[in-house]
Design brief:
CATH topology: Rossmann fold
Number of helices: 8
Helix content: 40-55%
Number of strands: 5
Shape: globular
CATH architecture: 3-Layer(aba) Sandwich
Radius of gyration: 19 Å
């Protein structure tokens, strides 16, 4: 199944290579990775119409494969069954406990209901980072720090396709710039002695 998803993502990237969608999903995925550093602190919630199971599974895979524990999502559900395993029994009350250092990622293809918007607003006020993958919800967009909008009439990108690309982008290790002691010493030497001239 992972190989099929990887092939689908590769084909999707080829089709979208000149549309701007790759850049937007990559930027949003990076924002998700950067804000989601606390293990258990990525709160993933959908709407009453559906929990984002598929995206949760992909983020969990990316977390494990990319050694990024902050990407392992806590799936927050509207009506978790009492007999579900502990990790699938997390209800909306978890959003009320959201705090600074945590990320609330809202996935809403249709407009988010008022109770969700209220909880998102409360989480934002307590310092949580708010990210939204949405289908045109202006109110949700106004509450989020980072947003990726997939309009319902978009012909090149489906909402499901955006979720695949975002999770793949979040799993990619960002390019690192040297920050160690040698790099700092080299910068100091350049500043004191000037650049080397051949």
């Amino acid at each position: 199944m992972v190989a099929v998803d990887a092939e689908q993502i590769t084909m999707l990237r080829e089709v979208l290579s000149t549309t701007g969608w790759l850049e937007r999903t990559r930027e949003f995925g990076r924002a998700l990775r950067v804000t989601s550093r606390t293990p258990g602190g990525l709160l993933l919630v959908g709407t009453p119409a559906g929990d984002p199971w598929h995206l949760a599974a992909h983020l969990d895979d990316e977390s494990r494969l990319g050694d990024a524990p902050g990407l392992a999502p806590t799936l927050v559900r509207w009506k978790p069954p009492a007999d579900a395993p502990a990790h699938l029994r997390i209800g909306l009350d978890r959003l009320e406990a959201a705090r600074r250092g945590e990320t609330l990622f809202v996935v809403a293809e249709e407009d988010a209901p008022v109770p969700l918007l209220e909880r998102v607003d409360d989480a934002r006020r307590t310092g949580a980072s708010i990210l939204a993958l949405e289908g045109g919800d202006r109110e949700l967009r106004g509450l989020a720090h980072e947003v990726l909008t997939v309009p319902p009439d978009e012909v090149l990108m489906s909402f499901d396709g955006a979720q695949h690309l975002v999770s793949a982008a979040a799993g990619q290790e960002p390019a690192r710039t040297p920050r160690g002691i040698r790099h700092r010493l080299a910068k100091l030497l350049d500043a004191v002695s000037g650049p080397v001239v051949d």
